[in-house]
Automatic annotation (TrEMBL):
<comment type="function">
    <text>Part of a binding-protein-dependent transport system for a sugar.</text>
</comment>
<dbReference type="InterPro" id="IPR006059">
    <property type="entry name" value="SBP"/>
</dbReference>
<dbReference type="InterPro" id="IPR050490">
    <property type="entry name" value="Bact_solute-bd_prot1"/>
</dbReference>
<keyword id="KW-0813">Transport</keyword>
<feature type="region of interest" description="Disordered">
    <location>
        <begin position="1"/>
        <end position="22"/>
    </location>
</feature>
<protein>
    <recommendedName>
        <fullName>Probable sugar-binding periplasmic protein</fullName>
    </recommendedName>
</protein>
<dbReference type="Pfam" id="PF13416">
    <property type="entry name" value="SBP_bac_8"/>
</dbReference>
<feature type="compositionally biased region" description="Basic and acidic residues">
    <location>
        <begin position="1"/>
        <end position="11"/>
    </location>
</feature>
<comment type="similarity">
    <text>Belongs to the bacterial solute-binding protein 1 family.</text>
</comment>
<keyword id="KW-0732">Signal</keyword>
Length: 354
């Protein structure tokens, strides 16, 4: 079994794919939910999982958007493992207390609090910078908070470039152009978990990251929702949902007994409850007891339950488009002269070219 998903090395992913196409496949390999498995499906190296999905009534217990993300040409090719909210806004309760502020409910309040934090010698916003994907993550958090569920599809749809040049997108560009000035000079090369430490020790006020940071917060002895405050965006924005799947290479006719068992166990109520509570992630199915969830994970689960969620750009866009967008967002971030117009034209150009 190989685990080359989001946050793991490209070398591990390449190794898993090489084993599949080279005739020595693992029983399963972990990939990102969405377009990550497209080339494997096109190469006909994956086994469809329709029989397991039908036997366990996935259509009734899993969100349709999740099923759509693992379905190709009417067949299911991925076993959903977990969902992750990618746009949690974390805050140091101690840092906010020092400036007499609470969790912001708007971007204006966010920047007002940021000014107070800076005056107090605290970094207003901690940004991870060792990978392009973290700039993408911040961007889609801002995007969701401005667009909401109704207009998200206008950005990801076929007329996305035209939408980016419209007035509706303009606040996204303005926030993105302003945000780097609230970060410190150590962004470049800084890993997300090191950035998370800035919140834990009160060195920084705010941090945007996915639910995987919740597990890190708990492991450090802090209580999410207490010493580290959290919300979905600054305005209870739609949760931007990503996730992981098992891709199961074909090994003869249909799934092997081991593959079938893994698919059934992974998606069971019992395993989903225990696994997601431990990881700080969100269940892929209904019927899971979320009473053990901390305040941050509970907020994410509620957003999904309320229909206040959108599927991450990792799911909607090809790896090539994601790579180009992440790379250019990093270039803009480190350019102190980048303007809202620069963000508009850069993002629109990528949507046109890919």
């Amino acid at each position: 079994m190989d685990r080359p998903g989001r946050g793991r090395s490209d070398a591990a992913k390449t190794s898993a794919i090489s084993r599949m196409v080279g005739g020595n496949p693992p029983d399963a390999a972990q990939f990102n939910l969405g377009a990550d498995i497209d080339n494997l499906v096109d190469s006909a190296v994956l086994a469809p999982i329709d029989a397991v999905a039908e036997a366990n009534d996935w259509a009734s217990v899993m969100p349709q958007a999740v099923l759509d993300a693992v379905t190709r040409d009417g067949h299911i090719y991925g076993v959903p493992i977990q969902l992750q909210g990618t746009n949690f806004l974390f805050a140091s309760a101690d840092a906010l207390d020092k400036v007499g502020a609470g969790m912001p409910q708007t971007w204006d309040e966010f920047f007002e609090t940021g000014d107070k934090l800076r005056e107090a010698g605290i970094v207003p916003f901690a940004q991870a910078g060792d990978r392009d994907v973290w700039f993408m993550n911040t961007f889609q958090a801002v995007l969701a908070s401005v667009l909401g569920t109704e207009e998200w599809s206008k950005f990801t749809g076929p007329d996305g470039a035209e939408f980016v040049r419209s007035d509706a997108f303009r606040p996204v560009a303005e926030i993105m152009a302003k945000l780097p000035s609230y970060a410190d000079s150590g962004v470049s090369g800084r890993q997300w978990n090191i950035t998370n430490q800035m919140i834990l020790n009160g060195e920084a006020g705010f941090f945007i990251m996915g639910g995987w940071a919740i597990g890190e917060i708990g492991a450090a002895g802090f209580t999410p929702g207490k010493e580290v405050l959290c919300g979905v965006g600054p305005n209870q924005a739609p949760l931007v949902v990503a996730g992981d799947v098992w891709a199961m290479p074909a090994k003869g006719d249909g799934l092997t007994e081991a593959q079938t068992k893994l698919a059934e166990v992974t998606t069971s109520v019992e395993v989903q409850a225990e696994f997601t509570a431990t990881m700080g992630s969100l269940p892929v199915r209904s019927g899971v007891d979320t009473s053990k969830f901390n305040a941050c994970a509970a907020a994410g689960a509620k957003a999904i339950s309320d229909g206040n969620s959108v599927m991450a750009l990792f799911i909607n866009f090809s790896p090539e488009k994601l790579g180009a967008l992440g790379s250019e967002l990093k270039v803009l971030w480190v350019n102190p002269d980048a303007t809202a117009d620069d963000y508009v034209e850069t993002v629109a150009g990528i949507l046109e070219d890919y």
